[in-house]
Amino acid sequence: MANIMEMAADIIAAHASTTPMSKEELIAELNEVHSALTALEKGETAEATEPAADTPAVSRKKAFGKDKIYCMLCGKGFKTLSRHLKTSHDMTASEYRKQFDIPRSQSLAAKNYSESRRKMAIDRGLAENLAKARATKKAKK
After folding, report:
1. Maximum Cα–Cα distance for the chain, whole Å?
2. Dihedral sign from CA coordinates of 130, 133, 138, 141
3. Can you say whether residue 126 is alpha, beta or left, with left for phi > 0 and alpha for psi between -120 and 50 degrees?
4. Is the pTM of this model over 0.70?
5. Which of 5, 27, 39, 77 could disulfide-link to 68, CB 3.0 to 4.6 Å?
6. Alpha carbons 76 and 68: distance in angstroms, whole number
7. Could you tell me the sign of the dihedral formed by the alpha carbons of 16, 63, 92, 34, in that order?
8. Is 45 in a helix, a strand, or coil?
């Protein structure tokens, strides 16, 4: 049987293969997973390492970056927050916005990511296809 450090390293390696992480994030996550596994082995409950819900882990100014958007609950960076909020914090985007007083006009995706998706949609002509589909649907009525 593998020891706890090997199991923690395997878990983090799997996570890091799908999520880009800095060296500091890798080390912090490895420590967190190792602590949780050690606590489970001893029969204790793993304590939550997230900051209190009313105090953000990252300031709003730092949370909305050009290449990444940082979760104000745990401080981790992503291209888009919606999936992370649902899976990690069991929270919807509107609940998150309400908790941290974020306006609906503020995107929960990194600026560069949004721009690249917009450019891809324009290149593929998705707006024209949508307009044609709507016109066809309206003509059938």
Report:
1. 68
2. negative
3. alpha
4. no
5. 77
6. 9
7. positive
8. coil
